């Protein structure tokens, strides 16, 4: 039977029939919709770039909505809810709770949250494609924020919402994503106290990628290594280490125009295999990354190319899968082109 399946697949490919893309449907509130971010920076869009052409990621987020059926603006009553049910999903990622935590919603209807959440999971599981439904532990929020009446106390998320969501996960035997732990105590990843920056959204996308693929990719970290030439104008905010500070608003701007580089030393006996590279360009200078090369080495003298940037990237995170790489201790971004000045805002070498 297994051999027949392989043969059938080969016949379909030879006949010009492409296998249907795996559909990932993302539902949620403004954090899913990408409030305060350009469209290409919302986490579902970044997730699509990481997953590649074999997947189709659909964003059905609606700002201000609640999972509570009796919330002040219930997702159940939106057209996006119906559209998401009809999206033929193979995976559904659910991220609600921020607006449910508002005192006006939770104080009156909090006891209904678990039941409503379980009903939503059941509704998605019942569609004809029988998708895997993945609820998320929601990101934290911070003070100050523009809506202090609605979001007066960050402790409401871990004290009220997270226990309820964990109960849902347990009661429904669902896989889950923890989007709280990697963003807690990191207000710099929240642009207005509520909504993630592009860097925060990238973390959500990375978590979703791992949940969908089972890849368990993590950022390979270490001490900064670089070309040693210093930063443009001797500045302290545009040094080589800015390429690895989880903040795409900072960037490496090197003193040398050609051949600058920045990277990481993973440490002795900590060689790792890179499976994916994610990067963000310096905003406004995206073209300077054309011709840039990501490389690995075990001696700091001989470098092997892992990936090359051939076209101007967009002002968001890009993702490049890496297949068949060897293990390396040293990893770097090398800005080979004349006049590129090492410009890069953020680099992630991902492995496991």
Low-confidence stretches: 1-17
Report how far the terminal alpha carbons are from each other.
Answer: 33 Å
Extended strand count: 16
Work out the helix count.
8
Average predicted local confidence, pLDDT: 94
* Multimer state: single chain
Major β-sheet profile: 5 strands, parallel
Strand content: 15-25%
Order of strands side by side in the largest beta sheet?
Answer: 2-1-3-4-5
Note the overall shape: globular
Radius of gyration: 22 Å
Secondary-structure element order, as H and E? HEHHEHEHHEHEHEEEEEEEEEEE
Describe the structure.
The strands form four sheets. This protein has a five-stranded parallel sheet with strand order 2-1-3-4-5, sandwiched between helices. α6 packs across α7. It has helices at 2-14, 30-33, 43-51, 79-85, 103-109, 113-125, 156-172, 198-213; strands at residues 22-28, 55-59, 91-95, 132-137, 177-178, 218-219, 223-226, 260-265, 272-273, 276-280, 293-297, 304-308, 318-321, 327-328, 330-335, 346-351. By secondary structure, the protein is α/β, with parallel strands linked by helices. It contains eight helices and 16 strands. A hairpin with a 6-residue loop joins β11 (293-297) and β12.
Brief overview:
By secondary structure, this protein is of the alpha/beta class. 24% of the residues lie in helices and 20% in strands. It has helices at residues 2-14, 30-33, 43-51, 79-85, 103-109, 113-125, 156-172, 198-213, and strands at 22-28, 55-59, 91-95, 132-137, 177-178, 218-219, 223-226, 260-265, 272-273, 276-280, 293-297, 304-308, 318-321, 327-328, 330-335, 346-351.
């Amino acid at each position: 039977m297994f051999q027949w399946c392989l043969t059938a697949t080969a016949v379909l490919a030879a006949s010009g029939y492409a296998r249907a893309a795996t559909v990932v449907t993302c539902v949620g509130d403004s954090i899913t919709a990408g409030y305060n971010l350009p469209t290409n920076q919302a986490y579902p869009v970044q997730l699509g770039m990481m997953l590649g052409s074999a997947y189709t990621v659909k964003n059905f987020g609606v700002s201000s909505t609640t999972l509570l059926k009796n919330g002040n603006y219930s997702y159940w009553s939106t057209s996006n809810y119906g559209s998401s049910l009809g999206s033929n999903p193979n995976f559904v990622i659910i991220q609600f709770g921020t607006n449910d935590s508002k005192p006006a919603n939770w104080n009156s209807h909090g006891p209904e949250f678990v039941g409503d959440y379980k009903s939503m999971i059941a509704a998605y599981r019942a569609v004809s494609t029988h998708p895997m439904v993945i609820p998320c532990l929601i990101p934290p929020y911070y003070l100050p924020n523009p809506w202090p009446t609605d979001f007066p106390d960050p402790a409401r998320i871990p004290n009220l919402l997270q226990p309820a969501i964990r109960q849902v996960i347990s009661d429904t035997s669902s896989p889950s994503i923890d989007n709280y732990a990697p963003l807690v105590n990191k207000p710099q990843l929240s642009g207005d106290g509520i909504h993630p920056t592009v860097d925060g959204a990238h973390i959500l996308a990375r978590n979703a990628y791992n949940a969908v693929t089972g890849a368990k990719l993590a950022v390979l970290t270490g001490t900064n290594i670089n070309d040693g030439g210093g930063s443009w104008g001797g500045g302290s905010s545009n040094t080589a280490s800015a390429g690895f500070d989880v903040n795409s608003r900072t960037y490496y701007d090197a003193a040398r125009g050609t051949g600058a580089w920045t990277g990481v030393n993973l440490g002795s006996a900590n060689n790792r295999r890179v499976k994916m590279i994610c990067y963000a360009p310096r905003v406004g200078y995206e073209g300077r990354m054309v011709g840039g090369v990501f490389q690995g080495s075990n001696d700091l003298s001989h470098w092997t190319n892992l990936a090359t940037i051939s076209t101007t990237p967009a002002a968001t995170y890009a993702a490049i899968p890496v297949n068949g790489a060897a293990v390396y201790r040293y990893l770097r971004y090398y800005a080979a082109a004349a006049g590129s000045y090492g410009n890069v805002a953020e680099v992630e070498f991902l492995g496991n």
